[in-house]
Inverse folding.
């Protein structure tokens, strides 16, 4: 009888130690984003960028929005081609594109790896100011891990 009580208490003790470790491991795994490139924390800056300005905003707890604006002497097609090449090499996927507005949207999936649950979005919008000047706005949104 004593041996049975000791065995039950031992199993109960192991279970009580295992549950917190499982919860802790689950928390760290769910917040881990494998292979997240640097472009998910800071958008890449175009090589011909001039007058670069950056600001950060937070709309919801855990959501980070970084906005980078600059001007370039290059046309919108050159700028958007640069971002498409750089971002797809970093694992970003193009989602919605509005060529009439020269607006391109990319998604980088992290954590669980499901396309329906993005961790990061990056929008690239260009606006022709003159024949030798293009305004560019990058909006990087980092969503909290689920």
């Amino acid at each position: 009888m004593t041996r049975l009580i000791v065995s039950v208490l031992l199993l109960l003790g192991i279970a009580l130690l295992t549950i917190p470790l499982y919860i802790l491991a689950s928390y760290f795994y769910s917040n881990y984003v494998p292979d997240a490139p640097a472009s998910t924390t800071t958008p890449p800056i175009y090589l011909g960028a001039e007058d670069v300005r950056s600001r950060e905003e937070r709309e919801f707890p855990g959501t980070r929005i970084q906005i980078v604006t600059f001007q370039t002497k290059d046309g919108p097609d050159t700028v958007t081609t640069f971002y498409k090449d750089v971002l797809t090499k970093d694992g970003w996927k193009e989602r919605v594109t509005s060529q009439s507005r020269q607006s391109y949207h990319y998604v980088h999936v992290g954590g669980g790896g499901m396309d329906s649950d993005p961790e990061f979005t990056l929008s690239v919008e260009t606006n022709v100011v003159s024949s030798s000047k293009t305004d560019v706005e990058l909006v990087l949104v980092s969503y909290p891990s689920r």
Remarks:
- The first strand starts at residue 50 and ends at 57.
